[in-house]
């Protein structure tokens, strides 16, 4: 359609005139039904994406985690020999901290003379020896390499007590028909340093007497620093704060997000 706008003007000789500007303005076409459906779907898809993002963000916030890692210190040497005929048990004491679920731990060996057979364990620690029953024990492991090698053990989520100390160790004791090779355990930093304040390297010359681990004081119970050790924990602290809620917020958000996705799909199919 045409629209006119009139304006007065004064000429160079003082005369007064009037001018009309003509502009052309087209009426906007009405959107089609398919365009309206597309706009609605786009807006709903954006809302669903935002809802899913919120749900995922909240669920990630519920799971906290912490890590003990003494491998960041430079390698300066090893403790040796680790074998069933010499020092049969090498390990590291530790505390859990606020996150009390031990998910996994890693101990390291290097420079094997021949194949060494061993198992990994976690026990409570009273300052001089392991106490109680094994909280975790692995299958038999084998090592025959010459390079530093980490052995990681997944505990399946071992609940610990933040007020207690524990010991994670490797032992050749009690393995029937095990190889008689030996290996070293890498030290963390310089000998006698203390990169990890809540634990120590420990060992026991217990030979093939596995029961002695919980009945006799170990030969080394601390004061010589740490070995290469990692432990991964998941948190109970934040999870406890939402435990009293009948339906966890993250489950509700996730359900809402999935429900919204299903709704979008139904409307899209109907269209």
Structure commentary:
The chain is an alpha+beta fold and 271 residues long. The protein has 2 domains: 2-27 and 37-63 and 239-263, no CATH class; 65-234, Sandwich (Jelly Rolls), CATH 2.60.120. Helices cover 21% and strands 38% of the residues. The chain is built from 3 helices and 15 strands. The protein has helices spanning 33-62, 237-242, 249-270, and strands at residues 2-10, 16-24, 65-69, 75-82, 89-94, 101-109, 116-125, 130-137, 141-143, 149-159, 165-171, 183-188, 201-204, 226-227, 229-234. The strands form 4 sheets. Strands 5, 7, 8, 9, 11 and 13 form a 6-stranded antiparallel β-sheet that branches. Strands 3-15-6-10 form a 4-stranded antiparallel β-sheet, with no helix packed on it. Helix 1 (33-62) runs antiparallel to helix 3 (249-270). The chain is globular and about 40 Å long. Mean pLDDT is 77; it is low at 1-28, 51-63 and 237-251.
Global morphology: globular
Number of domains: 2
The strand count comes to: 15
Work out the strand percent.
Answer: 35-45%
CATH topology of the largest domain: Jelly Rolls
Q: State the distance separating the first and last CA atoms.
A: 35 Å
Unreliably modeled segments? 1-28, 51-63, 237-251
**Mean pLDDT across every amino acid position:** 77
Q: How many H/I helical runs?
A: 3
Find the structural class using helix and strand composition. alpha+beta
CATH class of the largest domain: Mainly Beta
Helix content: 10-25%
User: What's the helix-strand series?
Assistant: EEHEEEEEEEEEEEEEHH
Major sheet description: 6 strands, antiparallel
- By CATH, the architecture of the largest domain is named Sandwich
Computed Rg? 35 Å
């Amino acid at each position: 359609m045409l629209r006119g706008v009139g304006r007065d003007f004064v000429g160079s000789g003082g005369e007064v005139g009037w001018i009309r500007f003509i502009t052309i303005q087209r009426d906007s076409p009405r959107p089609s039904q398919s365009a309206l459906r597309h706009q609605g779907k786009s807006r709903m898809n954006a809302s669903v994406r935002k809802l899913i993002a919120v749900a995922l963000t909240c669920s990630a916030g519920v799971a906290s985690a912490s890590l003990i890692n003494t491998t960041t210190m430079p390698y300066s040497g090893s403790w040796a020999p680790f074998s069933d005929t010499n020092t049969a048990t090498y390990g590291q004491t530790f505390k859990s901290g606020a996150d009390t679920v031990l998910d996994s731990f890693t101990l390291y060996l290097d420079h094997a003379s021949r194949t060494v057979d061993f198992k990994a364990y976690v026990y409570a620690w009273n300052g001089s020896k392991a106490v109680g029953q094994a909280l975790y024990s692995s299958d038999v492991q084998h090592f025959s390499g010459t390079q530093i090698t980490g052995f990681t053990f997944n505990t399946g989520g071992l609940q610990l007590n933040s007020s207690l100390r524990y010991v994670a160790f490797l032992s050749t004791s009690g393995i029937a028909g095990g190889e008689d090779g030996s290996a070293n355990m890498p030290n963390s930093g310089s000998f006698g340093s203390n990169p990890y304040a809540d634990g120590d390297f420990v060992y026991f010359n217990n030979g093939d007497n596995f029961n002695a681990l919980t009945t006799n004081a170990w030969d080394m119970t601390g004061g010589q620093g740490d070995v290469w050790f990692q432990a991964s924990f998941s948190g109970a602290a934040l999870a406890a704060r939402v435990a009293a809620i009948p339906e966890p917020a993250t489950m509700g958000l996730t359900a809402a997000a999935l429900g919204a996705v299903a709704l979008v799909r139904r409307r899209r199919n109907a269209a």
